Amino acid sequence: MELLGILSPPWWLLLLLLPALLLWAMHRSPWEPHKCPADLTGKTVIVTGANSGIGKCVAMDLARRNARTILACRSQERGQAAVEEIRAATGNPAVVLRLLDTGSLASVRAFASAVLREESRLDVLVNNAGVTGLPFAITSEGLEQTFTINYLGPFLLTNLLLDLLKASTPARVVNVSSFRHSVGTADSAFLTGQRCPGGYDAAYNSTKLMNVLFTAELARRLEGTGVTANALSPGVVSTSIMRHFSWPVRALFSLLRPFMKSAEQGAASTIFCAVSEEAAGITGKYFDSSCRLALPSAAARDAALARKLWEASERLTGLTEQGHPPAPPPAAAGAA
Ligand SMILES: NC(=O)c1ccc[n+]([C@@H]2O[C@H](COP(=O)([O-])OP(=O)(O)OC[C@H]3O[C@@H](n4cnc5c(N)ncnc54)[C@H](OP(=O)(O)O)[C@@H]3O)[C@@H](O)[C@H]2O)c1
Ligand SMILES: *[C@@H]1O[C@H](CO)[C@@H](O)[C@H](O)[C@H]1NC(C)=O
Ligand SMILES: *[C@@H]1O[C@H](CO)[C@@H](O)[C@H](O)[C@H]1NC(C)=O
């Protein structure tokens, strides 16, 4: 009788409501893009990996704010489809595609020189493109593919576009990292595949740590220029990010989708860093998926490690302090 009492309507309704409330609270962010009035008329933004997931939602939001929105994608077909979709949804005709494969330094250089030649300004650069689940492999440029796509390509891209960003201040660099940076290792020998990080999906975790370290060092170097650089975690987001995993892993991921943020919700912290009044002038910081300032892991706050990684990355990409490429020595990557 007592037990049946518990099961009578008001109680089980409450029991149902509780997890629903919990889910809602988990997904809710205190900062919501649609409540932010920022207008980007006359400004130019670049979003890498803008044809799907978080990147597409970010590009959609920035286009809605009237920015000239450059989608930097590696596929002409997928990129153009996103351009059409975003133009149709926002009515903004200044949404354009430029081809970029962050896994190839040659492609990064070609993309950057086209931007420098044809664009008069750059107000926001969102380094969003990223992969996980690819096998450890060395590219024709002698670099490990996941490390190049997620870290070294964006490193070079940002550096090549710095002068244009500085000429368009206040400008912002936004790096999409992950809460998983906290279990990564930043060894520059990973970049060339001389050493291979061990453990489950360790390459991804390590690139996301490098993203935070890079952002910190970049912010230090940009002090006083009016260009800010911040990193963020989008949270656990239901996108196509798991596409390179085996089917059992993908199936498990699918089961968990209802508990994840949608791509729109996952885009909030990136949009926050890119446009919000609250983030204006803030630099070298890490924001969590609720758009709150958070402390990244101890390794991510190690300034000496950040400098070492920066210098190794400069050598590998052939960048010097001045940004002029000498002949890169691809074999000399011993740091960290
Ligand atoms: N989803 C999550 O739970 C989560 C959590 C933490 C961090 N993140 C980060 O969020 C970012 C976006 O991921 P997502 O979840 O939105 O995944 P997604 O749907 O797979 O989107 C990734 C995007 O990056 C692009 N991309 C991949 N490799 C590229 C390359 N070599 N050159 C240019 N573009 C490339 C993809 O283009 P293609 O269509 O051509 O492959 C795609 O547009 C990533 O940096 C990821 O690490 C995601
Ligand atoms: C992060 O930002 C820096 C500049 O902030 C860039 O060079 C780096 O490659 C970016 N990307 C990642 C994804 O770390
Ligand atoms: C990478 O991150 C995932 C998710 O946090 C974790 O399960 C995995 O063990 C990590 N890999 C390493 C090598 O730390």
UniProtKB/TrEMBL annotation:
Keywords: Oxidoreductase, Signal. Residues 325-336 have a biased composition (Pro residues). GO terms for molecular function: oxidoreductase activity. Pfam families: adh_short. Residues 317-336 are annotated as: Disordered. It comes from the Eukaryota. The keyword Nucleotide-binding does not apply. Belongs to the short-chain dehydrogenases/reductases (SDR) family. The gene is LOC116996859. The keyword Repeat does not apply. InterPro entries: NAD(P)-bd_dom_sf (IPR036291), SDR_fam (IPR002347). Residues 1-25 form the signal peptide. This is Retinol dehydrogenase 11.
